[in-house]
Amino acid sequence: MKVGVLGAGTWGTALAIQLAANGHEVMLWSAVAKEIDALAADRCRIPNLPGAKLPESVGLTKELSEACIGKELLVFAVSSKWVRSVAVQAKPYISKGQKIVNVGKGIEEDTLMTLTQVIAQENPEASVAVLSGPSHAEEVSRGIPTAIVVGSAEPETALFVQDAFMNEFFRIYTSSDVIGIELGGSLKNVIALAAGVVDGLGYGDNTKAALMTRGIAEITRLGLKMGGKQETFSGLSGVGDLIVTCTSTHSRNHNAGYLIGKGYTVEAAMAEVKQVVEGVYCAKAARKLARKYEVSMPIVEQVNEVLFEGKSAKDALIYLFQRDRTWEYQGQ
After folding, report:
1. pLDDT 10s per residue in the chain (332 long)?
2. Residue 171 β-bridge partners
C-alpha cells in the first residue's frame, strides 16, 4: 500500500524502514529540512539508529502534501508538542475515511487530550488508531523481534494497521482500548524519569523495582477512572512499555532522569540526551489529570516537584518512602 510517514525522527524513520521491508510504497516527511537532507545524503548513517539503513525505496519529502495525498495510511510520528499543528496543516490533504495511526506518546497539557484525540479533533472524518508498546526505535530499525499493540474504536482500522506493519519480526496485537493504550504509553515516560533518578542517585534494583511497580499502579488507577481496561495496563502498552523504558540504555526518559539524579538541571539533562524527552512534557499533564479525576499519584507529584519546583531528587524519594502506611491495593 501507499504510506505516508509524518516525522523523520528516530521512531518515524525506524517505522519507515519496517514498512518498506513489508513491500509498501513509503514517503517519509519532516518539517525539519535538515533531517530530510541528512537522510538523502547518507541512508546508512542515521542519527540515533546505529546499524540501520533507510532503503532506497523510501521516498523523502519536505512537502506535507506529497506525504499525505493518495496515501492509504498516514503514520503520525510527530513529537507530542507538534501533533496538533501538523494535524491542522495536514487537514487539507486528508480524505474522508483516511486511516491514520498515531505512534507518538504524550498528553496535550492545555487540553489534557491524548494525541489520538487531538488528531481526531482536527480531522474528524478520518479513522484514527494508536500503535504503542515496548519498542525502542534502535532495535526495531534493525529487525530485532518486537511485539506491540494497535488500538482503534473501529476493528477494521485496527486490522488494517496490523496488516500494514506485521511481519516475522514485528508482531502486532489489536485492541479496542484506545484510551488505555495511550495513557500507558504516555505516563510510563514520567515513571521512567523517576526510575532514571533512582539509578542516578545510586540506589539498587530493589528501589527501582518498587518504583516501577507502584508506578504502574498509579497509571492503572488513573486509566480505569478514565475508561481504560485493566488488561491493557498489564499488557504490552502498559507494564510491557514501562519495563523497557525504565530499564534500557536506549530510553531517553531514563537517561534524562539518571542525569537529574546525578545533579543535572532538567535543561542540562535534556540538552545532554539530545532527543525529545517526552516525560518532561507529559509530567504536568499527568498531574493535572490526577487532580481532575481525584486519583492518588504520588510518584507523578514528586516528579513534578523535582522537575519544576526545585525539590531535590533525594528528598522526593525520601518523601515517597516515608508516606503514611497503607494497603497495597485499594479496598483491602
Report:
1. 999 999 999 999 999 999 999 999 999 999 999 999 999 999 998 888 988 999 999 999 999 999 999 999 999 999 898 999 999 999 999 999 999 999 999 999 999 999 999 999 999 999 999 999 999 999 999 999 999 999 999 999 999 999 999 999 999 999 999 999 999 999 999 999 999 999 999 999 999 999 999 999 999 999 999 999 999 999 999 999 999 999 988 889 999 999 999 999 999 999 998 888 889 999 999 999 999 999 999 999 999 999 999 999 999 999 999 999 988 986 64
2. 147
Residue of 188, 284, 311, 314 with catalytic role: 188
Q: Which of 172, 167, 174 is nearest to 143 (CA)?
A: 167
Nearest to 187 by CA among 141, 263, 129, 253: 253
Known catalytic residue at 188? yes
Query: Whole-angstrom Cα distance, residue 291 to residue 295?
Result: 6
**CA count, 13 A, side-chain hemisphere, 6:** 33
Torsion of CA 65, 66, 67, 73, to 10 degrees: 90
From the number of C-beta atoms within 10 Å of its C-beta (0-12, 13-18, 19+), residue 275 rates as middle
CA distances from 175 to 105, 131, 226, 236, 244 (A): 17, 10, 17, 11, 21
Q: Are 280 and 256 in contact, with CB atoms under 8 Å apart?
A: yes
- Cell digits of residue 87: 494535524
Could you give the CA distance from residue 299 to residue 196 in angstroms, rounded to a whole number? 13
For the record, the C-alpha cell of 21 comes out as: 521491508
Can you give 109-177 as a three-state secondary structure string? CCCCCEHHHHHHHHCCCCEEEEEECCCCHHHHCCCCCEEEEEECCCHHHHHHHHHHHCECCEEEEEECC
Cut 0.85: pTM above it: yes
